[in-house]
Every structure is written in structure tokens, then in C-alpha cells.
Design brief:
This protein has about 350 residues and is an alpha+beta fold. The chain has two domains: about 130 residues, Gcn5-related N-acetyltransferase (GNAT) (Aminopeptidase, 3-Layer(aba) Sandwich); about 160 residues, Gcn5-related N-acetyltransferase (GNAT) (Aminopeptidase, 3-Layer(aba) Sandwich), CATH 3.40.630. About 25% of the residues lie in helices and about 30% in strands. The protein is built from eight helices and 13 strands. The strands form two sheets. An eight-stranded mixed sheet has the order 1-2-3-4-5-12-6-11, sandwiched between helices. It is globular, with a radius of gyration of 20 Å. The chain starts with about 30 loop residues before the first strand and ends in an 8-residue tail after the last strand.
Length: about 350
Amino acid sequence: MTPEIKSKDSPDVDTRDNYPGRNCIMSDKSPFLYRCLCASDISGYTDMLYNSFNSWYWKHGWGKDYFGCKPAETSVFYDIYNDLSPGYSIAAFDKQTGKIVGACFYHPRETHVSLGIMCVHQDYWGKGIGRSMVEHILNFTKENGYKSCRLVGSAINMNSFSLYNRCGFVPRVSYNDMVINVPKAPNFMLGVNPQDKPGGLRIDRVRDARLSDVGKMGELEMEISGIKREMDYRYAIENPRKILHAMVYENSQNGIDGFMISVKHPALNMLGPCVARSEEAAVALMSRGLERFAGTWVLFLIPMEKRKMVEQAYQWGAVNVETHLKQVWGEFQPFKGVNMPSFLPETR
């Protein structure tokens, strides 16, 4: 059921006619036309994404722009998702003006569908566009035999929470959104590498991921989280756009007890996704991952019940900025370890 991966240079990836029926909702009664995004939509999409997010967060007391980059730089979301799963998006256009007024990506994987970043133009809030896009993605999920659709949504945005809840999504895990301003010469070893304790985890077991690790990463996430997404691990390791990085925590039997992917880009600096058998392994991966962001900020989401990780993050100087919820339509396996989601790639 997993879609074929096409490179960004494939001649048919961005054409409107490539995906007949998959991403189109036609209704004479609706004032909106729905179809998948294509390359000619990128400018309008990035302006809408940038302005809709910034408008919402200003309106709700954020006190600054959500996206601190240039509007055009938010095209990284389209770029990454189109690299991984070309054509799996749904966008709304005003039939009278042709203007893009809403968009959402979705990501079919081996075990599930993930509902990705969604935005609606601020002038079109409350017109049912979000509902139409969610229903389209859930119809795709059901029609293709997937047992779950998953997302990570803001717990402070009651409109989006209500939308997902009314559509059948159930909150399963709550996360602390935390930010660290990383020093230019970071040292996050404290509390991570207790050499004087039997069995203490060692930072030197964290190494860069290799393509030969992909299978083990998939097995680990299946064990911990009940999902698998090998195309994402492979993409992060190959890193064709030079903004991702993947690491693993290798145990003494040459197996993998955890992995961490991170993204560093003007639109988003973030640790995750991360999957680990223990909080200690996750903290070791975080410690090494923070080094990549020396001299800048980085965001990460820690499950609220993982107190060792939360307390370590506070010790490092992290501050809370928001709360998110993992929400699932359909089947869900409680996590048997650590699962930290990401906003890019957001295929949890």
C-alpha cells in the first residue's frame, strides 16, 4: 500500500494530470475546487502557509511570528513531502478567484496514513475547508485498507482539536513542546553518560545512521510504536536536500536501541522523529543531536510522562512553548518506549 517514491526530478511528479481521481473532490454546490498541489501552486501555498500560521499565533498570544523565516522558505514542506510521496496532498481553491485557500499533506506508509501539516487561509476560516480535507484523507485511509490515520496537533488550538475530534480522532499521547537556545560551544553531557554506574549509557554509542540500518530502524519502531516508515529513514540518511540528519544508538550486541532524525532549515529547527527503547537512550541521542544546532535554537516534543527526559531538558535550559497531542483515528498500540514526533517529516 506504500506509494512509490519518485525523485524530485521525475518529469511527472508535479503535473496536475498525474493523479486522476486520487486527490480530486468535485462538487458543483461547493464554492471551492479541491485537487492535489502541483509545482505551479508553490508560491501561493507558501504565502498562505506563512500568513495563516503567523496570523493564528499572533491572534492567540504567541507574541511573535510562528515562522521566523521568509515566506518562500516554507516551501521546504512541499519539497520534502513531494520528494517522499508525490501527489499525496489535497488543496482547496476559490472557484471565483482561483486563489488557493487551504491545503493539507498526507502520507501513506507501510502500516498507517499520517495527516500532515494543514493550513487554511485566514480569510476563509470557518467555511468547512478543513473538514472537507480531513474527510478526503479519511476516505483515502478507509478505501485503501489502512487501519489508522495519525496526526500530532496543537492542544491550544481548540478549532483544530474539535475538527479532528468530531472526525473520530482520539488523543493518545500528550507532549511538551520545548525549545533550547543552544550555545555556540554546547556541552550537553551532564547526566547523560554516568560512567560510574553499572550499565550506564555511553554517548560514544551514538553514531551517524547508515543505509544498512534502515531495516533495524523499521523493526525497532514497529516494536516500540506499532508503525513502520522505512522510506523516511532512508530519505533522511541519504539527505538529498542537505537539511536532515539521522543517528542511531547502537547497543553492545551491534543492534539498535534508538534512532534520532533532525531537521535544520530556516523554516524549522527540530529534533525528531526519535524512537528509543529507554529514556536514557533517547537522552543520549538528544545530547548528540543538540550539537548540530550550536549557536541557534531547536524545538523538540517530549512525551509528558517521560519525566527523566523532561527534567534533563529543563536542566539543559529548555523552556515550554506549547503542548501537542498525538491523535489517532482507528487502531493504536500504546508505546512501549519513547516516541518523539517531528513536524518534518511528520509521518508518525
